[in-house]
Specification:
The chain is α+β, with helices and mostly antiparallel strands and about 130 residues long. Helix content is about 25%, strand content about 40%. It has two helices and nine strands. The chain has a five-stranded mixed β-sheet with strand order 3-9-8-5-6, with no helix packed on it. The protein is elongated and about 95 Å long. The N and C termini lie far apart (about 95 Å). About 10% of the residues have low confidence.
Length: about 130
C-alpha cells in the first residue's frame, strides 16, 4: 500500500488533535476535582476590629468580629506577635450564635502591639490589627 505525503500529514494532524483534546479533558477534570474539594482553611475566615487603636498601660481594649466557616462554640484565642512569632495570650472565647465573638484585654507593656485572633486547633487567623500602648 502506498501512502502519500497528504495522508501522512492528515494522520499526524489527527493524532495531534486527539492528544490536545485528551490533555484538555484531563486538565478540566483535574480543575473540577480541585474546585469540588477546597481545603477547610480557604473556606473559613475571621474578621477583627479593635475598639481602640491607642491606649495607656492597663487600659482595656475589646476585639470583636465575625467568623465564617467555623462552628458556633469553637474556641478562639488572641495572639500577639513577639520576636517574629505569634504567641497566644491568656485571652480566649468561643464563637457565639450569629458567628460573632468578643475578647477584652489590657496591656502592661508599652509599645506597638500586633494582634490577631486564631481558631484553636485550625490554621485560620484574622488579619493583624495594631494597638499602640503608651
Amino acid at each position: 500500500m502506498h501512502t502519500t505525503q497528504r495522508q501522512m500529514t492528515r494522520a499526524l494532524a489527527a493524532g495531534a488533535l486527539s492528544l490536545a483534546l485528551l490533555s484538555a479533558g484531563s486538565a478540566g477534570a483535574l480543575a473540577a476535582e480541585t474546585k469540588a474539594s477546597p481545603s477547610p482553611s480557604t473556606m473559613a475566615s475571621i474578621s477583627i476590629k479593635a475598639t481602640k487603636s491607642s491606649v495607656t498601660t492597663g487600659e482595656s481594649v475589646t476585639f470583636t468580629g465575625r467568623t465564617s466557616g467555623l462552628k458556633v462554640g469553637a474556641p478562639l484565642v488572641l495572639q500577639h506577635e513577639k520576636s517574629g512569632k505569634w504567641v497566644p495570650l491568656k485571652v480566649n472565647t468561643k464563637i457565639k450564635n450569629g458567628s460573632s465573638y468578643s475578647l477584652t484585654t489590657s496591656f502592661k507593656t508599652k509599645g506597638t502591639q500586633h494582634l490577631r485572633v486564631a481558631a484553636v486547633g485550625k490554621k485560620v487567623y484574622s488579619p493583624t490589627v495594631t494597638v499602640n500602648v503608651t
